[in-house]
């Protein structure tokens, strides 16, 4: 299976990936000009843009540059991208880290939807989709190379998995009722993610000498510098693959859980869409599969995007990491647990075994 360039540009994270590929091309003059142009062209689109403060000289002479999307597109078009695994890894990590579904999209994420900038990103999407190093982006779960990541203070729950799913389902019903009654008509932020229960086992594939993707591909990361990594054996049985918006829509239609009241404010704010919202009922999904896996391609083409369900409303895939699998059955350690930490002294800032 190959990655469709148009599908890549249809997803908010896919568009951001293409932008970050251009901005990851070193520190040459063309890249610097492009970064400058993007920063200022995005500013009018950013609802949380802050204030420019002059610390010296005459503040009245400090005038913000006015850069149009067309000018930003010209600057981006002057960058000649070299696509290689290092560039793609960097761009993917940045695109994931900058995801935020509880607020309006960033100015840059709006800028890349303009006609001019989108056109400038089309050659990048074509180059990325043809690059052989991304073949694994469309692959199903890599069962033989899975590892769980536990952050600095997080510990896995001992509660039975089915009990966790039942508790999650009851909690979702209670939250929906609360928002429909106590908070009816109020703009109150609630839970914004649409993942299975957060305390279920979840894993990503391990690459590059055992480093799991879950260490680097983290949405809105908290800057963790240490983590525990547990290589695991995963259960046999069907794993549902989410490889794009169509797969997510099918899952929502098959096992719909209405979340309009609880998600209305945050999902309307991040997408601009007004209407009914649905997400998968993971307690029901668990009856037909041992896990659900989000491919990297599925993430880039679906995360943060309004997925139309027809008469059933719409849905939003939010809170997942690329290549992440949530398991509805037990995973067991396959090797000893390891401690990993960020090597701040190295130029690449990579994670390494402690």
Word description of this protein:
- The chain has 354 residues and is α+β, with helices and mostly antiparallel strands.
- The two termini are 37 Å apart.
- α2 (12-23) crosses α5 (85-97) and α3 runs antiparallel to α4 (69-77).
- It has 12 helices and 14 strands.
- It has helices spanning 5-10, 12-23, 29-42, 69-77, 85-97, 107-111, 115-130, 161-181, 245-254, 260-271, 282-285, 296-302, and strands at 146-151, 202-207, 211-212, 226-233, 239-242, 256-258, 278-280, 291-294, 307-308, 314-315, 325-327, 332-333, 338-342, 351-353.
- The longest helix is centred in the middle third of the chain and has 21 residues, at 161-181.
- Strands 1, 2, 3, 4, 5, 8, 11, 12, 13 and 14 form a 10-stranded mixed β-sheet that branches. It has a two-stranded antiparallel sheet with strand order 6-7.
- It has 2 domains: 5-138, no CATH class; 146-353, no CATH class.
Tell me the overall shape: globular
Total individual domains: 2
- How large a portion of the residues is in β-strands, by DSSP E? 5-15%
The biggest beta sheet reads:
10 strands, mixed
Structural class by SSE content: alpha+beta
The end-to-end distance, rounded to whole angstroms, is: 37 Å
Secondary-structure element pattern, one letter each: HHHHHHHEHEEEEHEHEHEHEEEEEE
Q: Uncertain segments of ≥5 residues (pLDDT<50)?
A: none
What portion of residues is helical?
Answer: 25-40%
Radius of gyration: 21 Å
pLDDT average, as an integer? Answer: 93
Please provide the count of β strands: 14
Please report the number of helical segments.
12
